[in-house]
Specification:
The structure is a homodimer. In chain A, the strands form three sheets. Chain A has a five-stranded mixed beta sheet with strand order 1-12-11-7-10, with helices on both faces. In chain A, strands 3-2-4-5-6 form a five-stranded parallel beta sheet, with helices on both faces. Chain A contains 14 helices and twelve strands. In chain A, α1 packs across α13, α2 packs parallel to α7 and α10 packs parallel to α13. Chain A is α/β, with parallel strands linked by helices. The interface between A and B is large, with 115 and 116 residues.
């Protein structure tokens, strides 16, 4: 991928050193180099044991599903996959009901994904599905921490578990078993995803193309966090819709914190936009609203799929013949460039990420790039990027309500 | 619907008078009382002429599709409808291709929706579909302004058009033919939608329940727009997912403006969240990030659908038996209340909207309520709520690019 910055800034001096300092203790950094032996064996056995399973259903919420879905949805339109993937994450009864109506659960295998193992939404949904399937353990596998009670439970019913390293946080876990197991089971090439992430890792840590770009961008975002408090990504591909959701969690939950050395609330607000649709929705606010937003365009250079706008002229609408014979792929990228140009003219802080193709390699790069960027900004904002103490209070209140 | 505010404030004195002053010239205010004769006839003829049509496909972008989709998606899980609805709005070739693979276009009728009639995305997609169907006009109807060139074109190929009043802006148009025609064609009770909107209109303009609440809320939002510049809605029903998207356009595009009597950029940033999922994503930022966000909870009191969490105890996970026998409906609302409580404790500006049911009446109320709220805040921010000059520049640049 390419990343063009439309601003310049001196990189924060100690930033790279501080990233190196946390590299060993924060687990996600090293996921691109993990061994896949166990995972490959799990998938191989699965294919042998369950040749008729058509659907992989992930039961998980937040970090247990957002990254997996981002990658799956990015790739699903451009590949023939061997199985379909679905997600159960909400306690909304309609959503549960809709999925069960829509698919054959007996042709499905359910992956219970919960790092801690006691996520209330996930366990509630599990109980529902488990009882629907007469508590037959063959429909279920588990992805959790080795020491969790969920793993103990899985063992007690004779189901298999795959593990997540303790030092990999939920929202940084998509390149661990949390994402890789379901993705591999539907036939996505996870080796190439890791290869892409590895490329980004090498480029960043070994003085490659991305190092200075990423450090500059992080410095620019952190230095201006009071002025440009909202960081929008404006993607020009529907395939990146769920990447936006993953980004929102990663950015919001990692950086919205009390500072380590003060009690000051800091943080940056993430917003994901999809073009050209959101040109007809959010763009006006970027252009004429309060100037508190930076914009990162994410474009796909080559969609592979070639669809041309037919060369027909509509009576009375001849002024729109300018689109005749243009490929949709070309049109959407011209729309991105026109919007970029219009924002450049009014001096919105901008950068552009270009993915050459929709494939495993480039989503691997993009994911790891955003993880590195989040870590870098977290260091500069002086927050603990990897915890989420702010959500505990609501959980305690809920438990109290349920006990009464 | 009910709306509980967790703050108090003196209503801006001239606000109600100013709303009354624009009521006659701004078309959307009076949509709840429109006559449906023409529309009913259109739908009746359609059902006779096309008894076999299974899908209604809206080709439209921004205000031409967001509201329709918001209402359709709100209702679709809770009703048996006579047809399905789909949307074509992006120039992303994959999305176009996916829909065409997925449905039988010969069993479909396409509604071309464009107020101006020369929206580049909409015309491009139309050309593609039109040519796919051998330029057979029977597959198409049009919703546009009476004076648009698109209407002239429709006439020239012998297709029917339904019209939008000139003084109803795109993002305020869902209760005009733009939303009502497609909704009626799939079997949604549009009379009840308008009845709900009418109820809200009467309650607001005739000194009913909502008047002071809405005026207080608008005043609170506008007075604090510098401090609380981000207005999140936190809906606890998946059915409101696309309502959030409609809200984002309505709020962002209406209020992000240069002030009428200065050149100051003002505006408020809308964010739509869905619980409980976004408790695992965005909530941390609300709790510990910069205190620049207000939160409106939107809950559905009774989902109708009763699904209980089974009364089974999982070995080692007995601490989660607290959910046993609880209805999912109850759980999701307790989650909303627990989150609300946790935000109350840290003094985030809050209010709660409660919809008794998922039905036409209450979505009509909610839509009209948000339109009134947007108009009210627009008056207080001293902006032109109904235009969008900021997006023109990008369109001009695009046309230039396409001409070369």
């Amino acid at each position: 991928m390419k990343n063009d910055l439309y601003f310049d800034i001196d990189i924060h001096k100690s930033l790279f050193r501080k990233i190196l300092a946390e590299r060993d203790s924060v687990g996600y950094y090293n996921l691109p180099s993990q061994k896949l032996n166990k995972l490959n064996k799990f998938v191989e056995n699965f294919d042998k044991e369950y040749p008729d399973i058509k659907n992989i259903i992930v039961i998980g919420i937040g970090g247990s599903s957002l990254g997996t879905r981002a990658i799956y949805k990015f790739l699903v339109s451009s590949k023939e996959l061997k199985r379909k993937m679905y997600f159960l994450e909400s306690t909304d009864p309609s959503e549960l009901q809709d999925l069960i109506k829509h698919i054959d659960i007996k042709n499905s295998h359910f992956l219970m994904v919960s790092k801690s193992g006691n996520t209330i939404e996930t366990i509630s949904i599990f109980k529902y599905i488990y009882s629907l399937l007469n508590q037959d353990s063959k429909y279920f596998s588990f992805i959790t921490e080795k020491k969790s009670k969920l793993h103990k439970f899985a063992k007690s019913i004779g189901s298999k578990s795959m593990f997540i390293p303790k030092n990999v946080g939920g929202r940084f876990s998509v390149l661990s078993n949390i994402g890789l197991v379901p993705l591999a089971l539907v036939g996505i090439d996870i080796k190439n995803i890791l290869e892409g992430a590895k490329r980004m890792e090498v480029s960043f840590f070994n003085d490659g193309y991305i190092k200075n770009i990423l450090l500059k961008k992080a410095t620019h975002i952190a230095n201006n966090y009071n002025t440009y408090n909202i960081n929008t990504i404006f993607t020009y591909s529907e395939s990146l819709k769920y990447f936006c959701e993953w980004y929102v969690q990663l950015w919001g939950e990692s950086l919205g914190k009390k500072q380590n050395h003060s009690s000051l609330n800091v943080g940056l607000t993430p917003i994901g936009l999809i073009g050209p649709k959101d040109q007809h929705s959010f763009l006006q606010l970027i252009v004429e609203g309060i100037r508190n937003k930076s914009v990162t365009f994410i474009m796909v250079d080559d969609f592979k799929l070639k669809l041309d706008i037919p060369n027909i002229s509509l009576k009375y609408l001849e002024e729109l013949d300018i689109v005749n014979g243009v490929a949709f792929n070309t049109l959407i990228n011209k729309q991105a460039k026109a919007t970029l140009q219009s924002l450049k003219e009014i001096k919105i802080p901008l950068d552009v990420i270009t993915l050459p193709h929709i494939d495993e390699l480039h989503i691997g790069e993009l994911i790891y790039y955003y993880e590195l960027l989040t870590s870098s900004v977290g260091i500069l904002l002086d927050v603990n990027t990897y915890n989420q103490p702010g959500v505990e209070d609501g959980k305690i209140i809920l438990k109290g309500m349920l006990q009464n």
